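task queued by scheduler; priority normal; single chain, no ligands, no partner chains; default sampling; output format set to structure tokens
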Amino acid sequence: MKGIDHLVLCVRDLDEARKRYSDMGFTLTPTAHHPFGTSNSLVQLYDKCFLELLAIGDRAKIAPADPGHFSFGDFNRNYIENGPGEGLSMLVLDSTDASSDRQAYEKAGLDIYEPFGFSRRARLPDGDEVTVGFSLTFVTHQEIPSAAFFTCQQHAPEHFWKPEYQVHGNQATGIDDVILLADDPHRYADFLKGFTGVRELKSWKGGVAAETARGDVSIISLDEWDLHYPASFAPDLAAGPCLAAYRVRVGQIEPVQERLRQAEITRIHYGRGIAVPPDEAFGVTIEFVTT
């Protein structure tokens, strides 16, 4: 079964985002540059998933999207420049075989694209540089234009994952849940099944959820959102469903609370966790929860 691999968090200013995430208690990798025009910095988590802060680095290298070919750089450039602006632009699952993923998605009737792979240089904690490589299998949904979905097969994981980057001052260990907000969550149940490979979804009046090998992927309604978060946190759904929030699992809430207090970051206490609003977190609601 697949699990959450990482989340792509689109930002205008990567340095500003790095500082904010550091203030929230995350350890970040050095800035890296993709060969197709984007730049990133990662939050690696102990559960072998990560957050990817992503910005446009070199517009000249961004290839436009062509029929049948998904452009990672162009999608995120458009996300930033034409809306929503900043936020959670992509949900990524792990993979051991990109070719098999593509075949499965084609069989499930999902919108698929030509295979895509790349490599880049990565800086290790000791300062050495190595090459890491990835094969990505993209799928999209015509009614969800502000989000993209793909699987990621790593070809040099021994150079990617480093314990030094997986220890965080806020005690973050993994991604507990990713939330897609929609007017009618059940309309997208088949897409969720096809993308995650989870055949039996959790279903209730206000939503559906796939329990993956590493975290849940949930689609919830506005009414369900209002049960958990302030209505003011909800994004506008005029352009269709969007990835609106994610939950980070932490060992204790107190270290998170102290980090946010020291950085003067707005936080709302409720239930088992703390939520940081989208205007403080680059267009996405972040929720810190205990196990």
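post-processing summary
- The longest strand covers residues 129-140.
- The mean pLDDT is 95.
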